[in-house]
């Protein structure tokens, strides 16, 4: 089964497998019930950003105690944690990743133990620079619920003194990553200052009233309990003037119910529409490359959002090969119900790096860009077969395929009798009593059991047929009739021994094959 994105394939494929094998096993052995996770389709990714300037020693010690207790929460959410330490411009460093995303919290705790409070000076710190360091430096999983918990007792520079990062830039980058919600854990006197960062990234300010461990626990709990937003597609393509439908109906909340959907159709942070239904519709009037987002709010006031890329005025196949034309598939040889098939096509698309050939959608081989004819062996012909040709770019991008149906072969591909026997309606003339090789092809080697019982036969006919007379060029003097097959030429030969008593008469040779087809030739005998 194929699904629109990797971030939902595993769960859905598992359900399909269970449903398909369930009829084959006792009902008690297969459970195809879907259990919705409390985080995204691939789990939870949380990065902790710790301000380690001089005044933070108390909060850092509390974070170390919190780290020991958060392991079960991370595990329950198929989670990973990462750690970033930051200070400010002019300190020994501004921001650094101490621990990449890890499922095991032991690495997080080990690196956390190396942090000590020092430096700083002025009150604002490099929080925006630290967020951009985490956004760009960590490997975020597609489909995961993503969050950044910022622990600090100071405000931040906007723009940042280290790299010039602004709040707008941080918000834009958080959406591009699908998205990352920011949860500042700060003293109450900074809650208003951080509300813009939290609100614009669909996070939440958590007030640290002196119990930092409890505040961090609250942040992680709210991340865990919030709704799980899911859009139907990660990217949307449309032309200007076309209505685009954004479907978030797969979203859910385990702890509550979703009560509203806010739609930001151009990703500028302004939500143009609010609905109670999970579908938003918008018409874009001009071409653009951008991003959109939907924000979900549940009955408990918890929020979460999902984003998708926009390509207005662009096709999803721009930059990919077009479909080839005039595709044909012709059998060139057969062996039983298996054929070798010659495939031809035409194309002048410069984007093609290689061509791929498929049989019933299954890859069968690759050929170079300049190839226009290829032969596929072992094509089973018991049913109609779909032959496909599709171009790939050098980077592996697949274009539009072209397909042609090769009909099932219902019988032998009889070629007609070959020289020295001329095809009907010619009357072949030969000497009575000699043997004549009846040569023909069936398109492959089907063994020697190709004749129906009692076949072939010959019957006398009148010579007054009006058909042209044709001389048999060669005959054989075999002592009796026989059937053979020549693999080199792909030709069957039935050596037919005639009777001297047939002189001055005419006869019809009749051959019936095991597929029920009948084939004849007529002869006139001389002395």
Q: In words, what does this structure look like?
A:
With 527 residues, this protein is of the alpha/beta class. It is built from eight helices and 28 strands. Strands 3-2-1-4-5-6 form a six-stranded mixed beta sheet, with helices on both faces. A five-stranded mixed beta sheet has the order 7-13-12-9-10, with no helix packed on it. A five-stranded mixed beta sheet has the order 23-27-28-21-24, with no helix packed on it. It is elongated. The relative contact order is 0.07.
Number of strands: 28
- Give the overall silhouette: elongated
Tally of individual helices: 8
Proportion of residues in helical segments: 10-25%
Radius of gyration: 38 Å
Strand order of the largest sheet: 3-2-1-4-5-6
Largest sheet: 6 strands, mixed
- What is the averaged pLDDT score? 88
Low-confidence stretches: 1-8
Structural class: alpha/beta
Structure at a glance:
The protein is 17% helix and 35% strand. With 527 residues, the chain is of the alpha/beta class. It has a six-stranded mixed sheet, with helices on both faces. A five-stranded mixed sheet has the order 7-13-12-9-10, with no helix packed on it.
């Amino acid at each position: 089964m194929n699904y629109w994105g990797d971030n939902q394939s595993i769960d859905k494929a598992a359900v399909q497998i269970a449903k398909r094998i369930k009829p084959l096993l006792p009902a008690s052995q297969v459970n195809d019930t879907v259990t919705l996770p409390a985080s995204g389709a691939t789990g939870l990714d949380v990065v902790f950003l710790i301000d380690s300037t001089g005044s933070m020693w108390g909060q850092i010690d509390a974070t170390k105690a919190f780290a020991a207790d958060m392991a079960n929460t991370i595990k329950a959410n198929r989670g990973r944690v990462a750690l970033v330490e930051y200070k400010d411009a002019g300190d020994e460093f501004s921001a650094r990743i101490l621990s990449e995303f890890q499922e095991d919290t032991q690495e997080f705790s080990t690196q956390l133990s190396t942090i000590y409070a020092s430096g700083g000076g002025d009150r604002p710190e490099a929080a925006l620079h630290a967020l951009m360091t985490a956004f760009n430096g960590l490997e975020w999983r597609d489909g995961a619920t993503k969050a950044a918990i910022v622990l600090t007792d100071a405000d931040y520079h906007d723009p940042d003194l280290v790299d010039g990062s602004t709040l707008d830039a941080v918000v834009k980058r958080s959406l591009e990553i699908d998205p990352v919600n920011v949860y500042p854990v700060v003293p109450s006197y900074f809650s208003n200052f951080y509300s813009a960062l939290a609100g614009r990234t669909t996070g939440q300010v958590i007030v640290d009233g002196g119990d930092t461990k409890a505040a961090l626990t609250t942040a992680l709990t709210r991340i865990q309990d919030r709704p799980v937003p899911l859009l139907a597609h990660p990217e949307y393509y449309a032309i200007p003037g076309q209505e685009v439908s954004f479907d978030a109906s797969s979203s859910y909340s385990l702890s509550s119910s979703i009560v509203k959907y806010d739609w930001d159709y151009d990703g500028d942070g302004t939500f143009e529409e609010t609905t109670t239904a999970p579908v938003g519709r918008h018409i874009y009037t001009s071409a653009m490359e951008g991003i959109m987002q939907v924000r979900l709010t549940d009955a408990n006031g918890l929020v979460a959002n999902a984003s998708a890329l926009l390509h207005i005025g662009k096709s999803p196949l721009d930059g990919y090969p077009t479909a080839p034309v005039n595709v044909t598939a012709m059998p060139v040889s057969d062996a039983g119900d298996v054929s070798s098939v010659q495939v031809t096509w035409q194309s002048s698309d410069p984007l093609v790096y290689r061509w791929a050939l498929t049989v019933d959608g299954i890859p069968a081989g690759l050929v170079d860009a300049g190839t226009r004819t290829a032969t596929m062996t072992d094509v089973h012909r018991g049913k109609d077969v779909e032959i496909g040709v599709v171009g790939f770019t050098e980077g592996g991008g697949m274009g539009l395929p072209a397909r042609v149906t090769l009909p099932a072969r219902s019988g032998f591909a009889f070629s007609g009798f070959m020289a020295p026997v001329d095809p009907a309606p010619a009357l072949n003339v030969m000497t009575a009593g000699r043997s004549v090789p009846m040569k023909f092809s069936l398109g492959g080697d089907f063994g020697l059991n190709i004749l129906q019982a009692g076949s072939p036969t010959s019957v006398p006919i009148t010579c007054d047929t009006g058909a042209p007379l044709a001389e048999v060029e060669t005959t054989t003097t075999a002592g009796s009739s026989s059937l053979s097959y020549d693999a080199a030429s792909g030709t069957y030969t039935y050596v037919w021994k005639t009777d001297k008593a047939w002189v001055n008469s005419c006869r019809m040779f009749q051959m019936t094959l095991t597929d029920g087809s009948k084939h004849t030739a007529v002869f006139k005998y001389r002395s």
